[in-house]
From TrEMBL:
<keyword id="KW-0813">Transport</keyword>
<feature type="binding site">
    <location>
        <begin position="129"/>
        <end position="133"/>
    </location>
    <ligand>
        <name>ATP</name>
    </ligand>
</feature>
<dbReference type="InterPro" id="IPR001650">
    <property type="entry name" value="Helicase_C-like"/>
</dbReference>
<dbReference type="InterPro" id="IPR000185">
    <property type="entry name" value="SecA"/>
</dbReference>
<dbReference type="InterPro" id="IPR014018">
    <property type="entry name" value="SecA_motor_DEAD"/>
</dbReference>
<feature type="binding site">
    <location>
        <position position="111"/>
    </location>
    <ligand>
        <name>ATP</name>
    </ligand>
</feature>
<protein>
    <recommendedName>
        <fullName>Protein translocase subunit SecA</fullName>
        <ecNumber>7.4.2.8</ecNumber>
    </recommendedName>
</protein>
<comment type="subunit">
    <text>Monomer and homodimer. Part of the essential Sec protein translocation apparatus which comprises SecA, SecYEG and auxiliary proteins SecDF. Other proteins may also be involved.</text>
</comment>
<dbReference type="InterPro" id="IPR011130">
    <property type="entry name" value="SecA_preprotein_X-link_dom"/>
</dbReference>
<keyword id="KW-0547">Nucleotide-binding</keyword>
<dbReference type="InterPro" id="IPR027417">
    <property type="entry name" value="P-loop_NTPase"/>
</dbReference>
<dbReference type="Pfam" id="PF21090">
    <property type="entry name" value="P-loop_SecA"/>
</dbReference>
<feature type="binding site">
    <location>
        <position position="540"/>
    </location>
    <ligand>
        <name>ATP</name>
    </ligand>
</feature>
<dbReference type="InterPro" id="IPR020937">
    <property type="entry name" value="SecA_CS"/>
</dbReference>
<feature type="domain" description="Helicase ATP-binding">
    <location>
        <begin position="113"/>
        <end position="291"/>
    </location>
</feature>
<dbReference type="InterPro" id="IPR044722">
    <property type="entry name" value="SecA_SF2_C"/>
</dbReference>
<dbReference type="InterPro" id="IPR036670">
    <property type="entry name" value="SecA_X-link_sf"/>
</dbReference>
Length: 663
């Protein structure tokens, strides 16, 4: 019997506390280390082994009996009577047996350990390929049994629909229904999916729906009043345009991507309005920017993506403004407009940060490599890029609601998650989200071979060497996956390989329709797959027959990312669950990471050492690259912390302003 999902609208969402400072922060960090420490891990490990052993005993239960036991357990968790948590091991044992019967997968002890960690509000670091999808189901079921909304957050729509579909039989068996919400869905479909016990979706959909729901007219923020209104006027339920049931538990897959990489970008719900004056201004700014000479009129700082006008640049701009409309008379405003146009020219590249589709600029997500047709850059940047591309300018938009992902996820009462790469950011997870990181051991020892990196003076020689290595693997019958940082680079390599007669599959934001098919073929004998970060997370590449004997999948990292975690995710596509596999990174002296984050004199010295073939030069470049990656990560962390502090400050300032008005 399936119990109806509880109507949760009437309950308040948790209000996030402030970030601890000074001594409080020190004490808080110590607590984090304790909660994510070896003792906790040992305790969960022992419990997990007992649970798996217990589940093996339940093999003898008839299907009817197993369902009955699950129903009783669901009732315990729904009522939350005192001591119900003592039933946790038995509940997990029943679910483990159910997973075997419905999905043909009995969770390994390390998966049960991961499930326990997530249930207790930790972030389980589980290596890639260890079966996080199944692991997440157990805490999701335990949470959804309470009748409160449980959201499983995945990295993209494809994974949301895939995971909800694959795991549906287990949820049904446990008396729950599972749904998924994706970008293309209409409100009615969204509502019906959000009404399910467990909902798979992406952080963007979840936050956008949360904000849109909050914008609905007549929404009472007070829980008791809302309940009363619904009792007095049952029609209010039908007229309620909100799609979500509320927020309670979020289990976040690829938690580092969601809670760290994307955390700083605020999600903004906006309405576009025609503004001819702004359109003309953007075109004028573009024309002026085109007349400025780099080095003479402005200087650009690539590391911080910052542009500064020189005195000559200011003078030239002032002279140009004399013949322009009033808006250009204000010095600060005209500089802002031209700096935006210059940023568009200097830092934004087609095929990297964006593509042009049907006459529109479409943003490519830097971390996932996917297109984001709903997103636009703010403060005139989108229009500046359109102007540079010679496209019709879109109307600017007015902000209706905004919230950063960081702040949003701090609203949840229960937060848990998993990822293959959390260690580097353990401090940040605890500091910002109160999530201790627990490193779960692998089910089988990992036999991945990390081959020494290869270093080249320039990108042309690097790409030629990559093509040679791909050809070598292809001839030997080994499948290869090459990860690139941009769409343009993936296309370039594909053209190069095709020129050499090597058939290859290309997976990027522009060619994504056959994603599932490409991934299904990527582990077959002789397959060559070139992919942007799209293949970096969640893709499960199965080895074809005889491929393991040849050495398994070989991964080539063609250019390192600012966050080391992203490289580790890509490398994690090979050698899953104890299979063989290997990975190699390629570096060139003009890689963006080195250009932006390694000091220029060091780069010059290294380039000379490389050109002269000095022993140890390649190792030095690799060390410099590691330092550059650390510098990039530190900068990104500081930016995220600032965003959260600004968010807190804004919310304080706004609530103060409101209470003043009300008072
Ligand atoms: N207990 C199990 N028994 C048998 N097969 C399993 C089990 N758990 C997971 N698998 C299989 O292992 C493979 C990897 O699982 P999954 O994609 O969930 O890994 P992952 O940890 O999410 O990887 P990634 O970090 O790359 O996203 C899948 O093919 C899945 O069916």
């Amino acid at each position: 019997m399936m119990l109806p999902a509880r109507d949760y609208h009437a309950t308040r969402i948790a209000t996030p506390g402030k970030l601890p400072k000074g001594l409080d922060r020190w004490a808080h960090d110590a607590l984090g280390r304790l909660r994510g420490g070896g003792r906790t891990l040992q305790r969960y490990r022992e419990q997990a082994e007992q649970i798996v052993a217990r589940s093996l005993q339940q093999r003898l239960l008839s299907e009817r009996r197993l369902r009955e036991e699950l129903q009783q357990m669901q009732a315990h968790f729904r009522r939350r009577q005192k001591g119900y948590e003592a039933q946790l091991p038995e509940a997990l044992a029943l679910l483990a047996e159910s997973a075997e019967r419905t999905l043909g997968m009995r969770p390994y002890p390390v998966q049960v350990l991961g499930a326990l960690a997530i249930h207790h509000g930790c972030l389980a670091e589980m290596a890639t390929g260890e079966g996080k999808t199944l692991t997440a189901c157990f805490p999701a079921i335990l949470a959804a049994w309470s009748g409160r909304p449980c959201h499983v957050v995945t990295a993209n729509d494809y994974l949301a629909s895939r995971d909800a579909g694959i795991m549906a039989p287990l949820y049904r068996f446990a008396g729950l229904s599972a749904g998924w919400v994706g970008g293309e869905m209409e409100p009615a479909e969204r509502r019906s999916n959000y009404a399910r016990g467990v909902v798979y979706t992406t952080s963007k959909e979840l936050l956008a729906d949360f904000l849109r729901d909050r914008l609905q007219p007549g929404l009472c923020s007070d829980a008791a009043r809302r309940q009363l209104r619904r009792l007095l006027d049952p029609r209010a339920v039908q007229n309620d345009a909100r799609v979500m049931r509320g927020l309670d538990t979020a289990i976040i897959d690829e938690a580092d991507s969601v809670l760290i990489d994307e955390a700083v970008t605020p999600l903004i719900i906006s309405a576009t309005q025609e503004n001819r004056a702004l359109t003309e201004t953007s075109l004028l700014a573009q024309r002026i920017a085109d007349s400025l000479v780099p080095g003479e009129h402005y200087r650009s700082e690539e590391r911080y993506h910052e542009i500064r006008l020189t005195e000559a640049g200011r003078a030239r701009l002032g002279a140009a403004a004399e013949e322009l409309p009033g808006l250009w008379r204000g010095e600060a405003r005209r500089e802002e407009l031209v700096l935006t146009a210059l940023s568009a020219r200097e830092f934004y590249r087609r095929g990297k940060q964006y593509v042009v589709e049907e006459g529109k600029v479409v943003i490519v997500d830097e971390f996932t490599g996917r297109l984001m047709p709903q997103r636009t850059w703010r403060q005139g940047l989108h229009q500046a890029i359109e102007a540079r591309e010679g496209l019709a300018l879109s109307d600017p938009s007015e902000t209706l609601a905004r919230l950063s992902f960081q702040r949003f996820f701090r609203f949840f009462r229960h937060l848990g998650g998993m990822t293959g790469t959390a260690r580097e950011a353990a401090g940040e997870f605890w500091h910002i989200y109160n999530l201790p990181v627990l490193a779960v051991p692998t089910h089988k020892p990992c036999i991945r071979e990390i081959l020494p990196s290869r270093v080249y003076a320039d990108r042309q020689s690097k790409w030629r060497a990559i093509a040679d290595e791909v050809l070598e693997c292809h001839r030997a019958g080994r499948p290869v996956l090459v990860g690139t940082r941009s769409i343009a680079a993936s296309e370039e390599l594909a053209a190069m390989l095709s020129g050499q007669g090597v058939p290859c599959q290309l997976l990027n934001a522009v060619r994504h329709r056959e994603e599932a098919q490409i991934i299904a073929g990527a582990g077959q004998r002789g397959a060559v797959t070139i992919a942007t970060n799209m293949a970096g997370r969640g893709t499960d590449i199965h080895l074809g027959r005889g491929v393991a004997e040849l050495g398994g999948l070989h991964v080539i990292v063609s250019e390192r990312h600012e966050a080391g975690r992203i490289d580790r995710q890509l490398i994690g596509r090979c050698s899953r669950q104890g299979e063989p596999g290997s990975a190699r990174s390629y570096i060139s002296m003009d890689d963006e990471l080195l250009r932006r984050f390694a000091p220029r004199p060091a780069r010059r010295l290294l380039a000379r050492a490389l050109a002269e073939n000095r022993p140890g030069a390649a190792a030095l470049v690799e060390k410099t690259l590691a330092l550059a990656q650390q510098a990039a990560q530190r900068l990104a962390f500081r930016q995220r912390e600032t965003v959260l502090q600004t968010d807190d400050w804004l919310s304080d300032a706004l609530s103060f302003a409101r209470s003043e008005v009300e008072g």
